[in-house]
């Protein structure tokens, strides 16, 4: 432990955000990281707990060795901190930017003070490593001759690819989209995670490590999974859970009502230089936008709508507003589901809770022009409408951000006749599906979740696939990338 009294001396400090008036003019990230002295103070707040809950099942899903890298930073040993971080997390540059940080929710210091600022520390370590040139491709010295196909290039597919490649297997990633990254690339906005600077930087390293990527390869639709099986010893399905929840109320067929992901993926693609035919364009410019769904996906729609120049933005949610502080339903060390305005919501949107959308209003041209809503009251058996509380929301673009139902059932699942669970996710024993040699990981297996969980799924699945291929676990020499023993 670096400084015994650190947690008493220093207050938690966050990264600064650029002022709203400036940041809404562009789609780039807008944080100002803490300087070296300040981040060292933040690391010094760590108490090196006897039982570090940050690192436990309640905390970090990839079990980052948080007290160790905090201590190393306090002592100025940044390269060692980087190696510690990379030993458990393949992509700290993603989680350091967009993880909701369950580790901080479980931090012991959080019981009676602000938790350690673990996410910012993670961000600082990995960005320093790139700057200093410590982040180098780890090219395996030996190849096992085993071939693995990974379908889907989201965080689950990428972490499985990185791990199995380190173990010496030959990896090919097949992606149906034009660019690599899954929801990191097409869902999460550029202003939270820059695509070219951050995602492509990592993809280039993975290519140098020997991983092959094929884009615009829609497996189970344009290319049967059977074809991959002929060429590979194992196929891992990491296709995500992209089936959106719909809102089948009257006039749902009006124009300009879209699923959030249709809007977000266009917006992200536009930032990367793609353009769309006028008839296909979904733009918030000069529109009254209503986002239905109060979660993070909805909030991403808000941030993009603001940058596109929406006239007004309203975000509505069926559920009540979450409490502002932990209550008895979420005691420490559980993740605190408290209300916190996202940076996008702070940029300028109205929000309303306990709102039920009853029907869309369609104008004479078939376009949506509003939503008939009513306020509701929640009770033990669900909700009741509040009499006389009906109101109309003006809307000429409606974005449905009400969550996801599970993976697409057509294509790969259908072709392979895979068993699914009650929530329609691929059913597995460990990570093995009901078909021999076919594994599944990420949202496709556990349902819509978090990037850090997807990374964990990819890593754990890779361990199992490695054992399946070799009859033991490969251990990598992290200094030179050689594979030096099997246990
Ligand atoms: C809008 C939005 C914002 C989010 N923001 C955050 C956040 O801030 N922080 C966070 O932790 N989590 C966030 N999440 C959740 C997180 O992005 C997901 O949990 C995570 O990306 C899941 O990873 P995955 O690899 O399992 O799947 P995905 O990232 O969904 O990747 C699946 C990939 O498989 C490809 N694919 C699917 N089927 C096929 C096929 N048949 N052939 C070839 N390729 C195929 C898809 O094109 C896609 O690229 C967000 C989710 C959404 C929708
Ligand atoms: S729980 Fe918090 S204070 Fe304790 S070791 Fe982890 S980061 Fe440090």
Task: Provide a brief overview of the structure.
The protein has 18 helices and 20 strands.
Describe the structure.
By secondary structure, the chain is α/β, with parallel strands linked by helices. The protein has helices at 6-9, 20-23, 36-44, 66-74, 78-86, 92-98, 102-106, 118-132, 155-166, 183-186, 195-208, 225-231, 260-271, 296-308, 343-346, 412-416, 443-446, 451-470, and strands at residues 16-17, 31-32, 147-151, 170-174, 212-214, 234-237, 243-244, 257-259, 288-292, 312-316, 350-352, 355-362, 368-379, 382-385, 391-394, 397-400, 404-406, 438-440, 474-476, 483-486. The strands form 6 sheets. Strands 5-4-3-6-18 form a 5-stranded parallel sheet, sandwiched between helices. β13 and β14 (382-385) form a beta hairpin. It starts with 5 loop residues before the first helix and ends with a strand. Iron/sulfur cluster binds at residues 46-49, 52-54, 66-67, 70, 107-109, 116, 118. Flavin-adenine dinucleotide binds next to α9, α10, α14, α17 and α18.
| Total of domains | 3
- Provide the list of bound ligands, each named once: flavin-adenine dinucleotide, iron/sulfur cluster
Regions with little confidence, pLDDT below 50 for 5+ residues: none
Strand content: 15-25%
SS elements, strand count: 20
Count of helical stretches: 18
Class of the largest domain, according to the CATH hierarchy?
Answer: Alpha Beta
Shape type: globular
């Amino acid at each position: 432990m670096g400084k015994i009294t650190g947690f008493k001396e220093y207050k938690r400090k966050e990264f600064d955000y650029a002022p709203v008036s400036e940041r809404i003019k562009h789609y780039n990230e807008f944080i100002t990281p803490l300087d070296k002295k300040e981040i060292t103070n933040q690391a010094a707040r760590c108490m090196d707990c006897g039982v570090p809950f940050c690192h436990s099942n309640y905390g970090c899903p990839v079990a980052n060795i948080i007290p160790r890298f905090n201590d190393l930073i306090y002592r100025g040993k940044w390269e060692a901190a980087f190696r510690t971080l990379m030993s458990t997390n393949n992509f700290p540059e993603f989680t350091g930017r967009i993880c909701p940080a369950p580790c901080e929710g479980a931090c012991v210091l959080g019981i009676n003070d602000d938790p350690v600022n673990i996410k910012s520390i993670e961000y600082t370590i990995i960005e320093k490593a790139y700057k200093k040139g410590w982040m180098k491709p780890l090219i395996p010295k030996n190849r096992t001759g085993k071939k693995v196909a990974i379908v889907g290039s989201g965080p689950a597919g990428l972490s499985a690819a990185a791990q199995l490649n380190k173990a010496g297997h030959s990896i090919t990633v097949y992606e149906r989209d034009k660019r690599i990254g899954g929801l990191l690339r097409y869902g999460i906005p550029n202003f939270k995670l820059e695509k070219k600077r951050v995602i492509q930087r990592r993809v280039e390293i993975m290519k140098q490590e020997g991983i092959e990527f094929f884009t615009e390869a829609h497996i189970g639709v344009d290319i049967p999974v059977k074809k991959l099986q002929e060429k590979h010893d194992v196929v891992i399905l990491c296709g995500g859970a992209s089936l959106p929840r719909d809102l089948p109320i009257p006039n749902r067929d009006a124009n300009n009502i879209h699923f959030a992901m249709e809007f977000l993926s266009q917006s992200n693609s536009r930032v990367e230089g793609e353009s769309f035919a006028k008839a296909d364009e979904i733009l918030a410019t000069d529109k009254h936008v209503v986002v239905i769904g109060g979660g993070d996906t909805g909030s991403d729609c808000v941030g993009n709508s603001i940058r596109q120049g929406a006239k007004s933005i309203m975000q509505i949610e069926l559920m009540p507003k979450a409490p502002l502080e932990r209550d008895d339903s979420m005691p420490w060390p559980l993740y605190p589901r408290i209300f916190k305005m996202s940076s996008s919501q702070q940029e300028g949107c109205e929000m309303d809770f306990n709102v039920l959308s009853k029907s869309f209003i369609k104008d004479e041209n078939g376009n949506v022009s509003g939503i008939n809503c009513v306020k509701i009251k929640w009770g033990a058996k669900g909700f009741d409408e509040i009499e006389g509380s009906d109101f109309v929301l003006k809307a000429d673009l409606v974005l449905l951000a009400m969550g996801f139902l599970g993976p697409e059932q057509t294509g790969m699942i259908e072709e392979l006749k895979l068993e699914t669970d009650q929530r329609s996710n691929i059913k597995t024993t460990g990570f093995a599906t009901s078909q021999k040699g076919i594994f599944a990981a990420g949202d496709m297996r556990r349902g819509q979740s978090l990037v850090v969980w997807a990374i964990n799924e990819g890593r754990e699945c890779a361990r199992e696939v490695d054992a399946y291929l070799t009859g033991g676990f490969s251990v990598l020499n992290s200094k030179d990338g050689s594979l030096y023993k099997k246990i």
